[in-house]
Structure prediction request, 319 residues.
Amino acid sequence: MKSVLITGITGQDGSYLAELLLEQGYEIYGMIRRLSTPNLSRIEHILEKIELIEGDLTDQSSINNALKKSQPNEVYNLAAQSFVATSWNQPVLTGDVTGLGTVRILEGVRHVCPDARFYQASSSEMFGKVNETPQNENTMFYPRSPYGFAKLYAHWACINYRESYGMHSSNGILFNHESPRRGIEFVTRKITDAVARIYHGAAKELRLGNLEAKRDWGYAGDYVKAMWLMLQQKEPDDYVVATGRTHSVGEFAELAFREAGLDWKKYVKTDAKFIRPAEVNLLLGDASKARRVLGWEPEVTFEELVKMMVREDLKRYEK
Prediction:
């Protein structure tokens, strides 16, 4: 039986990946930070089938301990300070967790389980101020936030460990991917949650930043399959994972309110406090390499994704 260690298992991607790997018959270990009230809501339904190990990306010894305990065949590094807006307020922490944290795991793998295959969660935010559209594996990076440049540091660390030590380490450059399990602070979930609250009379408006910002949005459940496929390849490599379609924040809001039978223009207000110091206006991914090499295809459409998220939030507030 193959063993796997997932950092960030309590997050959106970690929970979907754990479900996928359980189906594949893996023995699953998840590394989680010690919190006074741990947030296990996304993995509650599979807690009996997995083993959790305390560890922190800022602490090398705890990472080494998690690797020794799990003896993994595959390691998926999904943990990060992953919220762009927070990275402006906490740039040093973001660099320590998201950037240096990856190097600590790579070092741990190199010394504890050098044959393990390693997946690094890279991000489309590394493209930032894009100089070509769509973006592929050869597009120049131009990050526009502390989160973006911390992810870029981790991305290059992964490549350097691959080339220097012959490690099977791959980067998945994932474009925005959402689901009903998305954190409430992210704009898509902020929208669908507000729709549900307004529908049930618990709120009167929704304040957003740049409605014109465009993103390539896919479904997280589809994207974790691409992660797994990368580590099944003979050779490690880097892949863009995206739908190849782009939509604005305004379009997302319009569709979400329509799903609840509401006119978005009556409720959505723009608020300058949600505008970032440096905005990323357009992200659109070219995943043709992932399609060709991995045989990966996104299955859930943008429209289906928005509806799925709205319905789940409506259901939650009904309770």
Remarks:
- The chain has a mean pLDDT of 95.
